[in-house]
Every structure is written in C-alpha cells, then in structure tokens.
Amino acid sequence: MVKSKHAVVKYMYKILVVDDEENIRALIRKYAEFEGYEVEEAKDGMEAVAMCRNHDYDFIIMDIMMPELDGFSACSKIREIKDIPMLMLSARGEEYDRIHGFELGIDDYVVKPFSPKELMMRVNAILQRSSRGGAENEKITFGGLVIDTSAMLVYVDGEKAELSPKGYELLYYLARNKGIALTREKLITEVWGYDFYGDDRTLDTHIKLLRSALKEYRDYIVTLRGVGYRFEA
C-alpha cells in the first residue's frame, strides 16, 4: 500500500495537568488522550512551574488547592515567563476564587466534581479560539472607550484597561452587537465556545470585572433581568 505524499499531519496539542490527586490526573489524562492530546502531569504548583520553565505547553489544567505551591501562585509564576491558556479546577465554587482566577488571566474555571466530557469541551473551545487569533484590524470607539482589535487592548479615556483575555472577548462581542439583547446562553456559547450547562456564575463574574475595568463607562453594559445583557452606548 502506497501512502499519499500529501498526507495531512495533525498537530498534537500538549497539555499539562496539575493536581495533587493522582486519580484526578488519571481521569483527565484518559479523556484528553482520547481527544488526541499529548498529556504530561505535575503533582503540585512547584513542579508545574519548573516544567513550564523547561518545556512548552499549549494548555494547562490547574487545581487550586495543592501542597507546596497553590494553583493561584503557580499561575502567577507561569504568567511571568509564558503566556499559556489555562483552566483552573477547584473544590469550592466561591465568587472570590473565580474573580481571583480571572484577574490572573485564566481562561475558564471548573468546580469539582466535574464532567470530564464537559471539561474537554471547554479545553477544545479555548484552544480553537486561541489558535484562531484576531483576524480583524479596527478600532471600535464609544466616546472615551476604545477597543483596539488589532492589539486586543481596551482604553478608557486614554488609559489602558486591565482586562483578562476572556474579558476582552466578552466586551468585544457585546460591543459588536450593540443594542441587541443577548441571553446568557448566547453569550456563553459565543464567547466561551461551548454549550450552555446552566451555570451562569462564570459569565456574571466576568461582567462584574468588566464593569469595574470600564469605570465611568460601566453603565454601557445593561443587565436585562431574567434574560442576559445588552451593550448600550
């Protein structure tokens, strides 16, 4: 049998799974490898930081509560040396944990116990969006609020707003759909890229952080009770 000269070689994403529970790491590895990912493991934050210094990864799944170095501290250390998409796991679902994680620039947050199938859907969606990148080159302006799509930056009265990558994507999607009522389901599907599972706390936390970053323009994001949000400028 002769192989085609033009066979397509599929890039295999490399994922680092960081959790002090061996059974959790094994479960994620099983599903990630089934999806075609290459998987490496770290049992705590210290080991994860060391591995990121010496190797390149396309994605990190990081537990928060770990010995030696917790997930938040490990995330901060890794962010100093590399920009890697990251999803955090936690046994707690408190708002403080979600806000702190998103402020550090993580892409998503999942509470234990979790569905491994849903977890991989979230990982797939984040990697697809990261590889797609920003194809447009424009500035969207509403008075002193400027969204620079080429640089993926937001300016409030000339000062750069501190937004996480997901916060930027959320604002961009809201602004491009100015005046349209957007349901929570629609926002999560379009911005996060996976089907809605009934937990809208992640969205509401990002909206809270986004309003804080927009300062006097926070009222541009209007809450539609029982529905979702609308951008009005």
Automatic annotation (TrEMBL):
Q: Which GO terms describe its molecular function?
A: phosphorelay response regulator activity; transcription cis-regulatory region binding
Give start and end of each Response regulatory domain. 14-127
Where in the numbering of this chain does the OmpR/PhoB-type domain appear? Answer: 137-233
On this chain, the residues bearing 4-aspartylphosphate are D63
Asked whether the UniProt record includes DNA-binding among its keywords, one would answer: yes
Function, as annotated: May play the central regulatory role in sporulation. It may be an element of the effector pathway responsible for the activation of sporulation genes in response to nutritional stress. Spo0A may act in concert with spo0H (a sigma factor) to control the expression of some genes that are critical to the sporulation process.
For this entry, the protein name equals: Stage 0 sporulation protein A homolog
Q: Lineage of the native species?
A: Bacteria, Bacillati, Bacillota, Clostridia, Christensenellales
